[in-house]
Design a protein that fits this description.
Shape: elongated
CATH superfamily of the domain at 2-72 and 84-121: Tetratricopeptide repeat domain
CATH architecture of the domain at 2-72 and 84-121: Alpha Horseshoe
CATH class of the domain at 2-72 and 84-121: Mainly Alpha
Strand content: under 5%
Distance between the termini: 123 Å
Order of helices and strands: HHHHHHHHHHHHHHHHHHHHH
Helix content: over 70%
Structural class: mainly alpha
Largest sheet: none
Radius of gyration: 32 Å
Length: 354
C-alpha cells in the first residue's frame, strides 16, 4: 500500500511539473539549489532536460553540421553570420550537474556540466564548476585549466578559486614535463605539455618560446611565429625571442622578415655572431650577396678563429676577382672546417693552357 501511495505521489509531482512551463521549472530548480535542496533540484532539472530533449538534439546536430562546413557553405547556409549558441538550452544540464554535485555524485555531475559546455562553449559558470569537480576528483591540472578559462571569460568565482588553488604555479610542472619530452625527441608530446602550461598561465613568455621551438622542429613555422609574437607582447625587444623568430622566418623562406629581426638583434647586441651569420643567410636568400659578404665579415671580426664564417664569405665571393674566396676557403680549411678543404685544394691555381 505504501509503495502504491509513493508511486501515486511521484506521478502526481511529475504531472504537476509537466503542466508547468519550462522557465518556471528551471526557476524552481534554481531556488531549490539556493536552499541546498539538491534532491528536489535534481528532479526539476531532470524534467527540464527531458522536456527539452528534442530541441537540444536538433540543436547539437545543427552545431555539428556547421562545424564541418567550409566558409562558402557557411555563408550560404541559414547561419551566414555564424552559429548562435543557445544559452537557455544549457541551463537544465548545468543545474542538474550542480544538483548531482551537491548529492555527491561527481561523475554524473561532470557528464552534465560537459553537456552544458558543449551546448554553450562560453558558459563561464559551467566551465568553472567543471573545474571544481575535476579538482575534487584529483584532476588538478584539468581543473585549473578550466578555472583559468572561466576566469578569462569573467567569472569571479573562478578568479578567486584559480588563485586559492595555486594554479599559476602548476604551469612550471608542465614546462618541465615538456622539456623532458623535447630532450627525448617527443616533439608532439612536448608541444602538448607547453600548451597546457600556457593554458594555466598565459602571462609568462617562456612556455610560448619553448612551444615555438617545438613548432619549428615540427616545421610548423607560422605557428612558431605566432608563439614568438605572443612572447614578445609579454617581453618586448628581447634578443632571444627576436633571434628565434628570425630563425623561423629564415626556415620558411620569409627572408625579408628574417633580415628585419636579425637587424633588431644586432642593434640590441652589436657583437652577436649568430645574428650576423643568420642575417647573412637571409641576404643570400634575397640574392643580396654584397650585404651577405658584409655580415659574414662582421662574423669573422667577432670570431676570427671560427672557420664557418670564412667559408660562408668565400661562397658568396666566389666571383670576386681579387681571389678573396680562395683566401677564405684556405683559412676555413686551416681552422678545421671540413667542407672548405675540397674548395681550398688547388684554389687560385691558374687553369692549364690548352
Amino acid at each position: 500500500m505504501k509503495r502504491i501511495l509513493f508511486s501515486l505521489t511521484f506521478l502526481s509531482t511529475l504531472n504537476l511539473l509537466n503542466a508547468q512551463d519550462l522557465p518556471t521549472i528551471i526557476k524552481n530548480g534554481e531556488a531549490k539549489l539556493a536552499s541546498s535542496d539538491f534532491a528536489g533540484a535534481e528532479v526539476d532539472f531532470a524534467t527540464a532536460i527531458r522536456l527539452n530533449d528534442g530541441v537540444t538534439t536538433a540543436y547539437l546536430e545543427k552545431m555539428k553540421k556547421y562545424g564541418t562546413m567550409n566558409e562558402f557553405q557557411r555563408s550560404s547556409s541559414d547561419m551566414p553570420d555564424g552559429f548562435i549558441y543557445d544559452h537557455q538550452l544549457a541551463l537544465p544540464f548545468y543545474g542538474h550537474g550542480l544538483a548531482l554535485q551537491g548529492l555527491g555524485k561527481s561523475d554524473e555531475a561532470l557528464t552534465d556540466l560537459e553537456k552544458a559546455i558543449s551546448i554553450d562553449p562560453k558558459f563561464a559558470a559551467a566551465i568553472c564548476e567543471r573545474g571544481v569537480v575535476e579538482i575534487t576528483k584529483g584532476m588538478k591540472d584539468k581543473g585549473c585549466i578550466d578555472l583559468r578559462k572561466a576566469k578569462v571569460l569573467g567569472n569571479e568565482k573562478a578568479k578567486s578559486l584559480y588563485e586559492t588553488n595555486a594554479c599559476s604555479s602548476m604551469s612550471g610542472s608542465f614546462v618541465q614535463a615538456g622539456d623532458k619530452k623535447f630532450e627525448n625527441k617527443d616533439y608532439a608530446g612536448a608541444l602538448a605539455e607547453y600548451t597546457s602550461a600556457i593554458q594555466l598561465n598565459s602571462e609568462q613568455a617562456d612556455p610560448y618560446i619553448k612551444r615555438g621551438v617545438c613548432n619549428v622542429t615540427l616545421k610548423k613555422y607560422d605557428k612558431a611565429v605566432n608563439d614568438y609574437n605572443k612572447a614578445l607582447k609579454i617581453n618586448q625587444d628581447t634578443v632571444k625571442i627576436l633571434y628565434l623568430r628570425g630563425l623561423s622566418f629564415n626556415a620558411s623562406g620569409n627572408y625579408k622578415s628574417a633580415f628585419d629581426d636579425f637587424s633588431k638583434v644586432i642593434r640590441l647586441d652589436p657583437n652577436n655572431y649568430d645574428a650576423y651569420m643568420q642575417r647573412g643567410a637571409a641576404c643570400e636568400g634575397m640574392e643580396n650577396y654584397r650585404s651577405a659578404s658584409y655580415d659574414y665579415s662582421e662574423a669573422v671580426r667577432i670570431k676570427p678563429s671560427d672557420g664557418l664564417a670564412y667559408y660562408k664569405r668565400g661562397l658568396v665571393n666566389q666571383d670576386a676577382k681579387d681571389n678573396s674566396a680562395c683566401k677564405d676557403f684556405k683559412t676555413a680549411a686551416s681552422l678545421g672546417f671540413e667542407d672548405a678543404k675540397s674548395l681550398a685544394e688547388g684554389c687560385g691555381v691558374p687553369a692549364p693552357k690548352k
